[in-house]
Design brief:
Distance between the termini of chain C: 39 Å
Structural class of chain A: mainly alpha
Distance between the termini of chain A: 30 Å
Shape of chain A: elongated
Number of strands of chain A: 2
Number of domains of chain C: 2
Helix content of chain C: 25-40%
Strand order of the largest sheet of chain C: 2-1-5-3-4
Shape of chain C: globular
Radius of gyration of chain C: 15 Å
CATH superfamily of the largest domain in chain C: Beta-grasp domain
Largest sheet of chain C: 5 strands, mixed
Order of helices and strands of chain A: HHHEEHHHHHH
Number of helices of chain A: 9
Structural class of chain C: alpha+beta
Radius of gyration of chain A: 18 Å
CATH architecture of the largest domain in chain C: Roll
Largest sheet of chain A: 2 strands, antiparallel
Strand content of chain C: 5-15%
Strand content of chain A: under 5%
Number of domains of chain A: 1
CATH topology of the largest domain in chain C: Ubiquitin-like (UB roll)
Number of strands of chain C: 5
Oligomer: heterotrimer
Strand order of the largest sheet of chain A: 1-2
Order of helices and strands of chain C: EEHEEEHHHHH
Chains: A mainly alpha (about 190), B alpha+beta (about 725), C alpha+beta (about 150)
Number of helices of chain C: 6
């Protein structure tokens, strides 16, 4: 664990400030913490750096405008592009000085893990539905914390115009910890 | 694996031995003058190989095949033994221009040289026949040449060209040899095997980017980000220590270059080089300010009138209904697939250039002027061009820079290559042009008058000021002036107000017809709509006195099935004459949820005569693709003086998945309407944009009056 | 010294690891058939194969291709023994200026290796990263279908 209680403390503090009237019951603290964590972490999931490759289409998108990927690039049978025009035809192990982004194993998330077009509730359902997520909660924590392709979002390099690509709205560590808290407290989804 | 053996022909790209040695890996050196040269055009060696000299430049338009075919038709040689090589630019000067004009622009190669090339073939043939006849002591008229052999039927004797050539070369060159009638051609009009195909398929080092000379250094250039600005200062020391760096130099007033052991090292250093620029020339200039400038030009009462029929003011004044609209065509880049490149070597005695030039003599003259040398000291070795489209003709900035760099490293060959980013941001752009068109109709919808005002930057002003007539560039009115406004209208007027900026403009495929063809043909559809008449029938009506145009138009309509598009699809039509070649096109499209799909382009073209049908079709296909890419996406924009497009991500070009089916019908009129030959390099382009926007109107109800189409919302 | 395997032969290359493969091929090994068009994997002119897969050599560094078998246009076929793609290219007369054609043919060869009888949709998907400013696309498509018949 990289950022233990540092992040957890304010989340719990926020959870305990919910006003409770006589008629209301108090939510279990873990559920509150899980929902609060999801509410914050989803902003990363919805960011173009993540969403452009978690598409619900047979192609990736690119840029903050989320345009269809140039050159007719398609998902292909194994989410690595079509047989002769693979992601790795252009995307190498590292970001290129020319602005072509790179990371080992550059690819699309499978369609079962598509987030595009879903609201926050839908994204959460996707993440927690064993049939679609293809990841256990523990694997999700690992993916969101340590997968080099996920972490690329925080090292996205410059674009083809030489301008820095926008990073997700919180640090990788903060995001990873929120995922951990969300899962540790039951991976609760908003209704 | 079952593969046919390719017909492999030698392809000589005029690489001559120079001080420093032969180019590594390039084909054998060109036949030396005097070795088998029958005439300046035709070289025949004892093994019967016929080498035909090509004076124009090959940039993909197939003239390394088409021009030799014109010679070979009359020479009566064996086509399988024909090779081609560039005529030497320097020799053309020192031998009093035996190869005539070397300019390669305005689709000129075939149409302007066909007659003297056929004559050159006939002359060499007559010299070979005369030599054989003398040896046999018979009359030349009793002999004939065919398939590389001179024969005398009466005696049954025959001699190969290779056995006759050396002696034939000493005979006088006959003048005005009668040429075959077109009906007697056996080679012209066939899709003969291409001379220049194999070196491209087997990736031989035929391009200027491939020049590799012993001891050669590499240069990368950084031009002032605002074109026309200048270098104030640069910090040589900041990059002097970087790997491979040999020299850091200023190039003219507006660029710097790093010369290094490899291009990658040179480019890394030039990108890291701190330069202070003076960009004041472009301060505040943007597309918006240029639009304002050109709009003011459209209203200029002092516009130069290029063509006038009747009194259009009176016609419009009496109109019951008026259309009065403004069209805008953007700047476009050439974006040749091979960025600007040239190798130069400068010594006290001579300057050698290995150049992808559309105009070998233009390169010579530019360098002679800039370097203050005698033109005879300039040796331009032409190579295959990795695309031209007008970028490498009158615009010789790349050749000048390469010599200005090499001159600072005397005696050492330096290959200068621009990065793609430099290439996009320092072009001579297809001009941005505005047109205001006004048409007046009577109460019954009959057309009374058509008035055109054009304003934009002048290519002549940018590249050839001596072409201006009292400051007026008539080319800005191409397609509307008397010679090429084809429509019989009762009252018409076109006028132009030139407005120049610091953005240089140049020749681009189709030149001014690339805008004006669209203005005219798109507006004609607006007229058709007002008259409530089918746009094809309106064109038929207005072209009724022009059987050649009508035949081309009808051929396209027939090919496309005009008026009967498949369900859900829409058609648009246009016809333009470029370089005496008529070209009519019909675009078949659909628009779904605002998404445009171009399904099919049907095209009929009449260049009068066709040398090589397959090359001709290829050129038309090329014009259509370039026109389609430009209409859909092409746009160079300016912000605070700088061009904003830097690479193919922000200057989109057509890709395979967007390709429509292209059907081309060649309908050569074979001299029925005159002797002038047409050129096909450009005529395929101008009709595309109007055919396309004219199809978008019935599909969406929208009249697109600015390009590119991608700037418009096509949702209904 | 790092070894680069190109067209079946090993070459010792004394260049920094971050050198794009394109420049090692062109400037160091003198293999000039692989061409520079954009430097940013936007045009496909520089396409080679790495272990049989299409690769844009302008963005792939020597580190990226360490240990890979590189094939360039020079190793695809020769006039005497053309690759089916090259034979088809000649038969259909695809090339105009020719500058992009090495990349087009290498990309097409990679496609045919994966899909010996490609559909038009397969061709669209494989070839849309290769630009041709002369507009040879229809013929590229026709030649790929023709090459498939040779295989």
């Amino acid at each position: 664990m990289r950022f233990p209680s540092l992040i957890l403390a304010p989340i719990l503090a926020a959870a305990t400030t919910i006003a409770v009237t006589a008629e209301e019951v108090t939510l279990p603290q873990d559920e509150v913490a899980s929902l609060a964590a999801f509410d914050r972490l989803v902003a990363v999931i919805e960011h173009p750096r993540c969403m452009n490759c978690h598409t619900s289409t047979d192609f990736p998108r690119q840029g903050n405008a989320r345009l269809r990927h140039n050159m007719g690039v398609a998902r292909g049978p194994e989410n690595h592009g079509t047989p002769a025009l693979q992601c790795a035809t252009c995307h190498q192990d590292n970001n290129a000085p020319s602005g072509v982004p790179g990371n080992a194993n550059w690819h699309l998330a499978p369609l079962s893990m598509a987030w595009e077009g879903l609201d926050r509730r839908g994204i959460c359902r996707q993440l927690t539905d064993p049939a679609r997520s293809t990841m256990t909660p523990e694997q999700l924590v690992e993916h969101m914390n340590n997968d080099p392709l996920v972490l690329w979002a925080w090292n996205p390099g410059n674009d083809l115009n030489g301008l820095p690509r926008e990073k997700p709205p919180m640090s990788a560590g903060e995001f990873g910890e929120l995922v951990r808290v969300w899962v540790a407290n039951g991976a609760q989804c908003p209704d | 694996m079952n593969t046919p053996a390719p017909t492999r022909r030698q392809f000589l790209f005029g690489i001559s031995a120079v001080a420093g040695g032969l180019l590594v890996g390039l084909p054998e050196s060109r036949a030396q003058t005097g070795h088998g040269e029958v005439t300046a055009w035709v070289v025949i060696t004892p093994d019967d190989t016929v080498t035909i000299r090509v004076a124009r430049s090959d940039m993909g338009q197939g003239i390394f095949t088409a021009l030799p075919m014109l010679v070979a038709e009359e020479l009566e040689c064996d086509w399988a033994k024909v090779r081609a090589e560039y005529a030497d630019t320097n020799e053309n000067l020192t031998r009093d221009k035996p190869w005539g004009d070397m300019v390669t622009s305005t689709s000129i190669s075939v149409r302007a040289s066909q007659e003297y090339l056929r004559q050159a073939g006939a002359q060499a043939r007559e010299m070979l026949i005369a030599e054989a006849a003398a040896r046999w002591n018979v009359t030349p008229v009793s002999c004939r040449a065919r398939g590389g052999i001179v024969s005398h039927a009466a005696s049954g004797r025959a001699l190969r060209f290779g056995a006759l050539a050396a002696a034939a070369a000493r005979r006088p060159i006959p003048e005005n040899v009668p040429l075959k009638a077109p009906s007697d051609w056996r080679l012209i009009g066939t899709s003969a095997a291409r001379i220049e195909a194999a070196p491209k398929v087997f990736a031989e080092p035929i391009f200027a980017t491939d020049v590799d000379l012993p001891g050669m250094l590499h240069a990368a250039v950084k031009n002032c980000p605002t074109i026309g600005g200048s270098v104030v200062a640069f910090d040589h020391a900041a990059v002097a220590g970087l790997p491979g760096v040999r020299h850091v130099v200023q190039v003219g007033k507006d660029a710097v270059a790093v010369v290094a052991d490899s291009w990658r090292q040179a480019n890394a250093a030039v990108e890291a080089l701190p330069v202070t620029w003076d960009e004041s020339i472009g301060t505040g200039v943007s597309n918006a300010t240029l639009r304002t400038l050109f709009r003011e030009g459209l209203a200029d009462p002092a516009a130069a009138i290029g063509h006038r029929i009747d009194d259009v003011g009176a016609s419009l004044g009496g109109a019951a209904q008026i259309i009065d609209v403004e069209y805008e065509a953007p700047f476009l880049a050439h974006a040749t697939m091979e960025p600007q490149v040239c190798t130069a070597k400068v010594t006290a005695e001579r300057i050698d250039l290995w150049a992808p030039t559309q105009n070998g003599e233009g390169t010579t003259n530019t360098i002679a002027r800039v370097m203050q040398r005698d033109a005879a000291q300039i040796f331009v070795h032409k190579l295959q061009l990795g695309g031209g489209f007008g970028r490498r003709g009158l615009a010789q900035d790349w050749a000048r820079q390469s010599v200005q760099i090499a001159a600072q490293v005397p005696g050492v060959p330096v290959r200068m290559l621009w990065s793609r980013e430099e290439d996009f941001t320092h072009d001579y752009y297809r001009p941005m042009v505005l047109a205001r068109q006004t048409a007046g109709f009577d109460a019954q919808g009959r057309l009374l008058g058509w008035k055109v005002r054009i304003s934009g930057s002048s290519i002549a002003a940018s590249l050839a000021p001596f072409w201006l007539k009292e400051g007026v560039d008539n080319a800005l009115m191409d397609g509307f002036v008397e010679e090429d406004m084809p429509y019989a209208v009762a009252s018409f007027e076109v006028g132009v107000a030139r407005r120049d900026s610091h953005i240089p403009v140049g020749f681009w495929r189709g030149v001014n017809l690339s805008q004006n063809g669209w203005f005219r043909e798109a507006f004609l559809d607006e007229i058709a709509a007002m008259r409530k008449i089918d746009p094809y029938l309106l064109r038929r009506e207005l072209l009724s006195e022009n059987p050649r145009a009508l035949a081309t138009l009808d051929a396209a309509a027939k090919l496309a099935g005009w008026g009967k598009p498949p369900a859900g699809r829409h058609q648009g039509i246009a016809i333009v004459e470029g370089d005496n070649a008529w070209c009519a096109q019909i675009a078949e499209i659909s628009v779904t949820d605002g998404r445009l799909k171009v399904h099919r382009i049907s095209c009929a073209v009449d260049p009068n005569f066709v040398v090589h049908p397959d090359i001709t079709v290829q050129q038309i296909e090329g014009g259509i693709v370039q026109g389609l890419a430009a209409a859909l996406y092409g746009e160079v924009t300016v912000e605070d003086g700088r061009v904003q497009q830097t690479n193919f991500h922000n200057y989109r070009y057509l890709r395979m998945e967007e390709m429509p089916v292209i059907d081309v019908a060649l309908v050569p009129s074979l001299g029925r309407y005159g002797d002038r030959w047409g050129g096909v390099g450009e005529t395929g382009l101008p009709p595309l944009a109007p055919a396309l926007t004219n199809a978008i109107h019935p599909a969406t109800g929208k009249r697109l009056r600015s390009l590119p189409i991608s700037n418009h919302d096509l949702r209904v | 010294m790092p070894v680069l395997k190109v067209n079946g032969s090993p070459h010792e290359i004394d260049l920094p690891d971050d050198t794009p493969l394109l420049w090692a091929l062109r400037d160091t090994l003198g293999l000039l058939g692989t061409r520079y068009g954009c430097g940013a994997a936007l045009c496909g002119c520089c396409t080679v194969h790495a272990d049989g897969k299409a690769l844009r050599s302008c963005v792939a560094t020597l580190a990226d291709v360490a240990g890979a078998e590189i094939l360039t246009i020079e190793g695809l076929g020769t006039a005497a023994t053309p690759h089916p793609v090259q034979a088809a290219w000649l038969e259909i007369d695809v090339a105009q200026c020719g500058y992009c054609q090495s990349g087009q043919m290498m990309q097409a060869a990679a496609l045919l290796r994966e899909i010996p009888k490609p559909s038009d949709a397969d061709i669209d998907a494989a070839m849309s990263g290769n630009l041709c400013r002369c507009g040879t696309y229809s013929r590229v498509r026709a030649a790929i279908h023709r090459a498939a018949e040779f295989i």
